[in-house]
Q: What sequence folds into this?
C-alpha cells in the first residue's frame, strides 16, 4: 500500500512517535503561554502592509484569529499527528489561499511561532537532554506543518485558478 503524503512528510523530516510523545509532554508547560504567543504573532502583521491588507474585520477579527492561532498551536502538542491533523493543516493552507495571503507570510509566521516556543523551552526546561529533544521535536513538527500547509497552498492556488478560468470561459 502506498504511503500517504503525511506519512511521507513524517518520514522525510524524521518525525516519530518519540517526537509525538515529547511534544505531548510539553503541552501543560506551553498552555499558559498561548495567549502571549498569539500576541507576538499578531504584532507582526501591521508591520507588513500586504499581510495587513487581508485583515479587514478590525480588532474583532484579530481577537477571533488569536483564538484560532492558539487552537492551532495547542494542536502542535496534542500527541495525535494522523490524517485528521493533516486535513486540518490542508484546510488552514487553503483558507489562506482564499483570503489571498501571500504564502511567504505563512512561512515567515512559522518562524515567529518556532522562535517564541524555542525561547519558552529555553526558559522552562532545565535538563539539557530534555531541552535538546524538545527543540528537535518542535523543529520537526513545524517543518511537518509547513510541508502540509505549503502543499495545500499549491493545490489551493491551482483550484482557485481553475475556478477563475471556468468563470472566464
A:
Amino acid at each position: 500500500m502506498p504511503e500517504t503524503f503525511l506519512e511521507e512528510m513524517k518520514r522525510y523530516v524524521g518525525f516519530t512517535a518519540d517526537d509525538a510523545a515529547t511534544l505531548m509532554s510539553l503541552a501543560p508547560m506551553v498552555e499558559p503561554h498561548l495567549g502571549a504567543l498569539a500576541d507576538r504573532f499578531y504584532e507582526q502583521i501591521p508591520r507588513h502592509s500586504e499581510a495587513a491588507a487581508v485583515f479587514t474585520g478590525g480588532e474583532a477579527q484579530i481577537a477571533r484569529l488569536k483564538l484560532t492561532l492558539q487552537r492551532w498551536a495547542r494542536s502542535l502538542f496534542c500527541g495525535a499527528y494522523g490524517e485528521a491533523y493533516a486535513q486540518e493543516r490542508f484546510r488552514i493552507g487553503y483558507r489562506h489561499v482564499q483570503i489571498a495571503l501571500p504564502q511567504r507570510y505563512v512561512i515567515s509566521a512559522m518562524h515567529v511561532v518556532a522562535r517564541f516556543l524555542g525561547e519558552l523551552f529555553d526558559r522552562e526546561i532545565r535538563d539539557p537532554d530534555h531541552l535538546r529533544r524538545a527543540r528537535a521535536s518542535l523543529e520537526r513538527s513545524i517543518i511537518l506543518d509547513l510541508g502540509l500547509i505549503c502543499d495545500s497552498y499549491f493545490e489551493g492556488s491551482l483550484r482557485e485558478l481553475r475556478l477563475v478560468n471556468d468563470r472566464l470561459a
